[in-house]
Amino acid sequence: MAEKKPIFELKNISKRFGGIQALKNVDFDLYPGEVHAVVGENGAGKSTLMRILAGVHTEYEGQMFWKGQPIRLKSPKDALDHGIAMIHQELSVMPVLTVAENIFLGRQPTTSYGAIDWPRMFREADEALRSLGFSLDVKKNLEEYPLGVHQLVEIARTLTSGAEVLIMDEPTSALSPKETDRLLELVKSVAKSGRSVIYISHFLEEVMQVADRITVLRNGEKVAVMDAKGTTKQKLISLILGKELDFFEESYAGSVVVKEDQPHETVLSVNGLTLHRKFEDVSFRLRRGEILGIYGLVGSGHFELAKAIFGLWDYDSGEVTLDGKRLPKGSPRAAIDLGIAYVVESRKQGLFMDAPIYQNISLPHLGKLSGLVLSPAREIAAAREVITEVGVRPNDPFKAVGNLSGGNQQKVAIARWLVFPPKVFIVSEPTRGMDVGAKEEVLEILRKLSEQGVGVLVVSSEPETILSVSEHILVMSKGKLVADFEGVEVTKSMLLDKA
Ligand SMILES: Nc1ncnc2c1ncn2[C@@H]1O[C@H](COP(=O)(O)OP(=O)(O)OP(=O)(O)O)[C@@H](O)[C@H]1O
Ligand SMILES: [Mg+2]
Q1: pTM for this prediction
Q2: Which residue ranges form the domains of the chain, and what is each CATH number?
């Protein structure tokens, strides 16, 4: 690419948030038609760098050159006008609006009278999605579709915006393997057409498959930029962690041998659970001290099943019992009081971004922690203990959750349930958005809980996560349990095959 000029350059970028140095003297550039990946641990500064480029953070040190000219972006709108569009890590779609409105949010086609041209908007939204290889009912509200679709709609919006530079911050965290493959093809074809893509992901295989160059950030500093060709996953991991590889071993070697049926005591039993159009006649038992994995593609009904067990969703028939006692349906409060904990697959649903860490942690336990009057001191002390246990960075209970990096938000969502250890821990997508090191830490927390006798139910669409921790694996497909692996060797392709 020597003959080409970069479309933009960031030079010597530094950014502080109060006492935290999020970026330190970082250089970054992008060429036309290039896919440039950015990788690094949770909190390394990836999203911050991209938010500077997308006009979100306007206060920083250093310089930005757009096609050779120095510029200072004033707002996200200003960035968009220059042709820079960003898909945020935490989605910005609006579930209560239609699919079409979400695709055209802020730039709806209008009639000559200035009113929204609905027929045209529906038609163009439909065309846009089809050109990307997806077919949705664009008149339906987005909330009727699963999270993976929200992510696709956000991607479609950005791709159709005509931007020259597309920033994708963890675009595949809610996508199925098939959707992910399609997206990677799409990214390549966008680049072929001369537009440029910045691609942030913790999935290093994806990164190596799609990127031309890779920049590695560690602790806010750029530690390497290199051609993707010729690098290896091992090399990337050691650059990301700043440690030699033998320190870190992936916890599954491509397969796992699940246990024989155990005689242990059942703690949670689900019998014939059915919710119209979501899941049907689901029965299984979770034993004390066991980690049971339920694998399914996005949309297979496994996330909805988890919500129904915890009481967030009602179900039509069947029953759930805990220690032999029937759980009332539709009551998370009752579920919590009886000893069930639940982490939702989407952080945005599960956390109050504007509230400090300690309030997010104490929320489910206010009754137990405070008695008749609120006791912030006890809330704070409890929070301090559990965030230290799971390694939230920064270790500051007063920090607003919205100011944490994505992976650290996930740790908060898990830590809140360690204040009073549950009997059953249901966790959907425990490692979504986590770097290789943090992933291990969270899986280790789940293992520890199981050693303490907690029944752990891991619900996930990431085969690696399921294979890394599960002692028993179920597969869900189109709302039904279709496979039950016990006492055999299970591989990723076996899971994908059944799903
Ligand atoms: N708005 C903010 N206010 C205060 N601190 C912030 C804010 N945004 C980010 N930070 C801090 O800056 C650092 C870098 O965060 P950033 O979100 O850029 O990490 P990241 O590399 O995107 O991580 P992840 O992979 O977890 O998404 C973190 O320590 C984070 O807590
Ligand atoms: Mg981030």
Answers
A1: 0.75
A2: 8-247 (3.40.50.300), 255-339+422-498 (3.40.50.300), 351-418 (no CATH)
If one residue of 48, 169, 241, 395 were mutated to test the ligand 1 pocket, choosing by the most ligand atoms within 8 A of its CB, it would be 48
Looking at the chain, the number of H-run helices and the number of E-run strands are 18, 22
pLDDT digits (tens, 9 = 90+) for 391-425: 898 999 999 999 998 889 989 999 999 999 899 99
What number does the ligand 1 atom closest to the CA of 18 have?
4
Taking the alpha carbons of 353, 359, 361, 362 in that order, is the dihedral positive or negative? negative
The 8-class DSSP code of residue 400 comes to: B
Cis peptide before 394 (omega within 30 of 0): yes
CA of 153 to the centre of ligand 1 (A): 25
The per-residue pLDDT for range 249-304, each reduced to its tens digit, is 444 556 777 776 666 799 999 999 999 989 999 999 999 999 999 999 877 899 99
* Whether the CB of 48 sits within 6 Å of ligand 1: yes
Q: What is the tens place of the pLDDT at every residue in 32-78?
A: 999 999 999 888 999 999 999 999 999 999 999 999 999 999 999 89
Q: Give the closest residue (by CA) to ligand 1 atom 12.
A: 22
Q: How many Å apart are CA 482 and CA 475, to the nearest integer?
A: 6
Distance separating alpha carbons of residues 199 and 189, to the nearest angstrom: 14
**Ligand 1 pocket member 403 (CB < 6 A):** yes
Please give the C-alpha separations between residue 304 and each of 291, 393, 399, 401, 489, in angstroms, as whole numbers.
19, 31, 31, 25, 28
User: Is the distance from the beta carbon of residue 396 to the nearest atom of ligand 1 less than 6 Å?
Assistant: no
- Give the nearest ligand 1 atom to 404 CA: 31
Tell me the C-alpha distance between 160 and 127, whole Å: 10
Ligand nearest to the CA of 88: 2
